[in-house]
Design brief:
Layout: H1 5-8, H2 20-25, E1 43-50, E2 56-67, E3 70-79, E4 84-89, H3 105-108, H4 130-152, H5 164-168
């Protein structure tokens, strides 16, 4: 069967329904970006996993890229370091027995443990389900891009994010 959010965040107390602005405001280090831009075509939503204290433990990013029979909804779970900890793929609309295996653990486990900046070039494609497989890969790439862009705030004004120490020691590593 399919995985659930609770599988990825067993210690989570809640997955609150909230606006994107509210969610991003409660994610340490995140910067609100315009997720309606064409670059993010396929973005469906973002949900925080929160602990009993209301602190953000990780993110679930919902995206859908076209498969064989239309969009295949994918929810990608990230910890705050940007590592993928799981995928929920709704391949129910894909061809039974052909495209549907992209929703199975054997397939989705290939993504687990990869960083959000992975190329995903070595992910195996299910031979009979190239379109469905590629749809999932594209969705994971999109979710990963969204995670990275949220966490780096790539579209900020130059210098806006720099701390005093970074200005004094621009070449220093953390």
């Amino acid at each position: 069967g399919g995985a659930s959010r609770e599988d990825f965040f067993p210690d989570a107390a809640d997955f609150p329904e909230e606006s994107l602005e509210d969610a991003v405001g409660k994610i340490p280090g995140a910067v609100l970006i315009d997720l309606t831009a064409d670059d993010y075509d396929g973005f469906q939503g973002l949900t925080r996993a929160v602990d009993a204290n209301g602190e953000t433990m990780g993110l679930l990013i919902q995206v859908a890229k076209n498969g064989y029979h239309g969009p295949v909804p994918v929810e990608v779970a990230f910890d705050l370091s940007g590592q993928i900890i799981g995928l929920i793929v709704d391949a129910s609309e894909e061809t039974f027995g052909v495209g549907q295996p992209v929703g199975e653990k054997e397939y989705t486990d290939q993504f687990v443990g990869r960083p959000a900046d992975d190329s995903f070039e070595d992910v195996d494609i299910i031979s009979d389900a190239t379109i469905s497989s590629n749809s999932v890969i594209r969705s994971v790439k999109l979710a990963s891009k969204i995670f990275n862009d949220l966490m780096t705030g790539r579209i900020e004004e130059p210098g806006e994010q720099a701390s005093e120490l970074q200005i004094l020691f621009p070449d220093a590593q953390e």
